[in-house]
Write a structure and sequence with these properties.
The protein has 11 helices and 8 strands. By secondary structure, the chain is mostly helical.
């Protein structure tokens, strides 16, 4: 249950129990968190701290394969029921002031990895929030996932994953409705034949019937940034100002050019 849906007394009860120690990443960054709250939010922590594993006795959990940068967002969600939006700073000429890689640091890669971590923690609402942050950020800056990011998604999510479906739909839309050529996605197709088939299938929705192919960066109501605020639980920085990410590939179509501005 979310903090917004819990009574103040119930939420405080989750903060008055014992603490556990979690060490994250190769550097083993230390987090001391409320055991009852973690277990109320994630079945993963229930198994770890209330099950038959040694962590239940020691109260110490090590997660060396995970990133503190990503885990920070998960902790934020556990305590606040929301995560910060993607933010990215641009200099005046439109190029980015930060570089990122698909599995490195940076706003978009962090939210991609957050989706994968949320699956590990068995927190589907957090996964939804991660996708929403990605969708809204890409829409704001008219940007697309770059091949290395799609490959990361393909290699770290199951075929039925909503994040993979988003990547498929976005690639199909980019090929059919923008100046981005299929060759741009060649590394993705070479990495995964299934991804190539899925993109081709998505494109068949358009040809030869010319049925509409909607931009997956838009919400269900066809809007971009103002979708999904709901009751506030698990929303993506509802109270935060938006500064778009620019961490992917942005089509430079305003001048009729087929060039692209690399923004990662």
């Amino acid at each position: 249950m979310s903090p917004q849906h819990e009574s103040s007394t119930a939420f405080c009860d989750l903060l008055t129990g014992g603490m556990v120690d979690i060490y994250v990443g190769p550097s083993k960054k230390h987090y001391q968190l409320h055991k009852a709250l973690l277990c109320a939010r994630s079945p993963f922590f229930v198994n770890a701290f209330l099950g038959s594993f040694r962590e239940a006795t020691s109260g110490v959990l090590t997660m060396t394969d995970d990133s503190p940068e990503v885990f920070n967002l998960a902790v934020q969600f556990i305590y606040k029921g929301a995560i910060d939006p993607l933010t990215f700073n641009h200099n005046p000429n439109g190029t980015t002031t930060t570089t990122t890689t698909a599995t490195g640091s940076g706003p978009l890669p962090t939210h991609l990895r957050l989706f994968v971590l949320a699956d590990k923690l068995q927190m589907p609402r957090l996964q939804e929030c991660a996708i929403e942050a990605i969708r809204r950020g890409l829409h704001r800056w008219d940007a697309y996932l770059k091949p290395s990011q799609i490959i990361y998604i393909v290699n770290n999510t199951p075929p039925a994953s909503p994040l993979r479906k988003f990547a498929v739909d976005l690639a199909a839309f980019a090929i059919v409705r923008t100046r981005i050529k299929p060759e741009f996605f060649r590394p993705c197709f070479e990495e995964s034949a299934d991804f190539a088939v899925d993109v081709a299938t998505a494109m068949q929705r358009v040809f030869p019937t010319f049925a509409p192919l909607f931009d997956p960066r838009l919400g269900l109501d066809g809007e971009g940034d103002d979708v999904g605020h709901g009751d506030g639980w698990g929303e993506v920085g509802a109270d935060e100002p938006w500064v778009g990410p620019g961490t992917s590939m942005r089509a430079n179509v305003s001048q009729g050019s087929e060039d692209y501005v690399a923004e990662w």
